[in-house]
Amino acid sequence: MKKFFISFLGALAGIWFSLLLAMIGFIIVITAAVASSGSQGSVDIKKHSILRLDLSGVILDTQPKLNFMSVVRGEEKGAQILSEITGSIIAAATDDRIDGIAIECAGADAGLSQRSAIVEALRKFKEKAPGKWVYAYGDAYTQGDYYIASVADSLFLNPVGQVDLHGLSSTTLFFRNLLEKIGVEVQVVKVGTYKSAVEPFILDNMSEPSREQQQLYLGNIWQTIASSIADARGVSEAEVNKWADEFIFTKDPKDYPQMKVVDALTYRHEYDDRLTALTEAKKVDDLEYVSTSTYAKNNDLSKVGDGKGAEIAVLYACGDITDESGDGIVASEMVPQIMKLIDNEDIDALIMYVNSPGGSAFASEQIWEALQQFKKVTGKPFYVSMADYAASGGYYISCGADKIYAQPVTLTGSIGIFGMIPNGKRLLNDKLGINTGTVKTNANGNFPSLMEPMTPAQMAAMQGYVERGYELFTKRCAEGRNIPQDSIKKIGEGRVWDGSEALKLGLVDKLGGLDTALADMAAQLNVESYTVTVYPDAKQKWYAPLLEAGADFKASLVRDELGEMASLYDTLRRVKGMSTLQCRMDFVDVSL
């Protein structure tokens, strides 16, 4: 009896301890939510203020859902929203309270298209407000920050700082030898010579088609960036490439002004004195800064003009495309959202913002069909604005739009399909000493099996399945782009294109970001004022973050433990959650 009571009390203590942890988590989440809402209070923006563009921390496409682990780590505080940054910059051009923009460069974590959108917004600011100024300062400029900062009228660097320019690259991890060592074979069926997303699992090096396509789009993207920097700094593109080739970050900073890399070397207090002279502030302490996030929260950036001309819905589709669950584009959530937009009589048009490397072919088809229903039932215009990626499944869901916009640095296309089925027979038999016995009523009763290789008949059936998927994919693209299907197949083959090449091929209609798409949509609607409404709403039930906290906590611990190898863990985790048939581009990360 004594042991029973001890066990009982131990179990009870465990339950109470778990409840205590849950309560603490609940308090943290609620506190974070309240703090977040409280931070949106009104702030008096004074005359002669300076809009501060802080290039540090993470820049996200849209407001994320509240994440338990991010709150615990304090990461939520550092995230900035792209639309708030670009919207604030453009609005500040006609705001008499803002004298100019100060860009603070401290190593922002942002995608290529996000940086391009900020560059585009800064150029619009300078066009709209030629009497205002844009200054930039950094103790050290990363390549990505320099791309943005180069647009400034004047670029300042700490006298012992550095500027890093080195060009672009992408690195692919190949797991074939590892899989062979542990006794796992990845059986692949695919359509598309350039469909290289499967290569890491079946090759030990990059194929020539993969290298060819990467060399082309990396070269084109870098040319776009180098040309932008060259134009802004008043040098040739060849000179920018010389900077990149000659380890400019190792040069003596004293040489930078003469090379036109920067305009002047100044310490922070000297830079602050310069800003003071540009405003009516009597001393540095009197400078009035307003961050882009604060500016956005105190100005209704969703409205252009009085906002009454039209209501344009912007639907964000970001992340991997999955059927039922995930953090990205989940078809079971996205399709009902589109159906609600069909029934929403208040909206006059739809723009879908796509930042996705693709995913489930089935989910992509469901989302494509729902968007076609939007066009058919409502008769309202539908545009797509592409961000860093809108490839494979990301292009699938985009191809039916009336107009498609992409940045020159966008990766798109990758029109192809593949399927992967692991075979762990050797792992079980030879490595672990496990044998299996199977009873089945039909020849394929246990298909697909992770413990046996596919038979020739099964492999042929799967290949036919993939080819039918490719036929449907290319048909959707042909119909959406009004291009013969045979022509789509020629530029398909799973090949990834940058935005500039995609424009030449007819895969997109115009180069530009979301702001360009919105302006063109307003012109089509024949309105000068409009309101932008964002979907889906980032708000969520209060208990949702707690339900997800367990998985987030486990994944966070694993990543911390793996350190630099965390990318391998993330890749394998993604593969584990894949459906059989995939519309997905390569596992490559192109960043500045």
Give your account of this protein's structure:
The structure is a single chain. With 592 residues, the protein is of the alpha/beta class. The strands form 5 sheets. Strands 10, 11, 14, 16, 17, 18, 20, 21 and 22 form a 9-stranded mixed sheet that branches. Strand 5, helix 5 and strand 6 form a beta-alpha-beta unit. Mean pLDDT is 86; it is low at 17-22, 26-40 and 540-545.
Q: Can I get a quick summary?
A:
It contains 22 helices and 23 strands. The chain has 592 residues and is α/β, with parallel strands linked by helices.
Tally of individual helices: 22
Radius of gyration of CA atoms, rounded to a whole number? 26 Å
Q: How many strand elements?
A: 23
Instruction: List low-confidence stretches.
Output: 17-22, 26-40, 540-545
Residue share in helices? 40-55%
Q: Average pLDDT value? A: 86
User: Structural class, judged by helices and strands?
Assistant: alpha/beta
Strand content: 15-25%
Shape by Cα distribution: globular
Main pleated-sheet profile? 9 strands, mixed
